[in-house]
Amino acid sequence: MLTYLLLWFPMLLIAIVNGTLRDLGYKKWLGELPAHQFSTLTLIVFFAVYIRYVVHHFPPASETHALMLGLLWLVLTLAFEFGFGRYRGHSWNDLLADYNLLRGRLWVLIPVWVAIAPYLFFKLMQR
After folding, report:
1. Range of the domain at 54
2. Could you tell me which residues come within 8 angstroms of residue 32 by beta carbon, excluding any fewer than 6 positions away?
3. Number of domains, the chain
4. CB neighbourhood size of 20 (10 A)
5. Can you say whether the dihedral through the CA atoms of 56, 11, 75, 41 is positive or negative?
6. Which region, left, alpha or beta, applies to residue 105 given φ > 0 means left and ψ of -120 to 50 means alpha?
7. How confident is the model at residue 127 (pLDDT cuts 50, 70, 90)?
8. How far apart are CA 4 and CA 11, in angstroms?
9. CA-CA distance, 108 to 124, in Å (whole number)?
10. Is the distance from CB of 44 to CB of 111 less than 8 angstroms?
11. Chain mean position to CA 3
12. What is the tens place of the pLDDT at every residue in 7-61?
């Protein structure tokens, strides 16, 4: 699992690049909420490309292993998201606001995708 722990770190870089593209690029034309929504979708696509690469080149040993990989990456993602957010001085309410689907915030799709994508790509690879 150490390999998969290390393979999580490039996802941080991918997320930072994605956020930078949003903030320095299309946010001024789309507006705050639509830019965050679009950014969530682009991050899912970028993560899909990366996770498919990882699963192809470092295949999990089994379905259970793929599920455990997704769980590991989910925990790391949420720990970073909330830990770094709190470190930066954001309140719990501010941090949780990004997960409010009723207000159009789609960010919850990111941890869900990170959790299930390794399993889905593992299953596709078995075909």
Report:
1. 2-126
2. none
3. 1
4. 10
5. negative
6. beta
7. confident
8. 11
9. 24
10. no
11. 18
12. 999 999 999 999 999 999 999 999 999 999 999 999 999 999 999 999 999 999 9
